[in-house]
Design a protein that fits this description.
With about 220 residues, the protein is an alpha/beta fold. It is built from six helices and six strands. The chain has one domain: Rossmann fold, CATH 3.40.50.10610. A hairpin with a 5-residue loop joins β4 and β5.
């Protein structure tokens, strides 16, 4: 219970008074700088392995969540900040009795200890899909939190709604697709451009979500 209270208190405080607005730097023309962004002070050591939990959602189709899981896994791995250890829904259910865990709900008291022991991780990354609309204009809301698997401290948190109806986001998504095509890395997906393909737009959203994730 002590661990449960600690983790909940820390996760709940990410966007409170201690948050700060930081303009993430990136290669692509992106959306307006998210206001709900938090980065903790460096604590003296880097993360070597991070457990990526399954995406949490309450009402969106399984296939859509599978696409999002794949996109966020791929984009986080491309950052090369640490080794990404994806935790499947089946594995999560075996360990904790739940197939998904939200960053803002009650968490198992032994979450940190079990994931450290099972996967040898330094950090745990939660990703919640707060909104998802696959129809034009496509929009995806993301809430993500990276916590220290030993102390429970929040190292990074992000909360933003990517709406392709926003001109800045639409421009950023098209620039992202053009850059990948130029590098001979065409976006996978269900056809069409990034603004009409939920799969392709999900890749852009995942890419932009992690632009601000930098651990020293």
């Amino acid at each position: 219970m002590k661990h449960r209270v600690l983790v909940l208190a820390l996760l709940g405080a990410a966007f409170g008074a201690g948050c700060q607005t930081i303009k993430p730097a990136g290669v692509f023309v992106g959306p307006p700088s998210p206001q709900n962004f938090f980065s903790g002070e460096p604590v003296g050591y880097p993360f070597r392995r991070v457990a990526l939990l399954p995406i949490f959602n309450e009402k969106y189709p399984t296939e859509s969540v599978r696409v999002l899981d794949s996109a966020f896994n791929a984009e986080l791995t491309k950052k090369s900040l640490f080794e990404v250890v994806p935790v499947s829904q089946a594995s999560l259910e075996k360990l904790f009795g739940d197939r998904q865990l939200s960053s803002v709900e009650n968490l198992p008291a032994n979450l940190l200890e079990k994931l450290r022991e099972r996967y040898g991780v330094d950090g745990i990354l939660f990703t919640d899909i707060t909104h998802y609309s696959p129809y034009r204009p496509i929009s995806i809301g993301v809430r993500a939190k990276l916590i220290d698997a030993t102390s429970g401290d929040i190292r990074w948190a992000f909360d933003y709604l990517f709406d392709s109806g926003n001109p800045g986001i639409a421009a950023g998504a098209k620039t992202y697709q053009a850059k990948l095509n130029q590098d001979n890395q065409p976006l996978p997906g269900d056809g069409g451009t990034v603004l009409i393909s939920p799969t392709r737009f999900a890749k852009y959203v995942a890419n932009q979500t992690y632009v601000s994730l930098t651990l020293k």
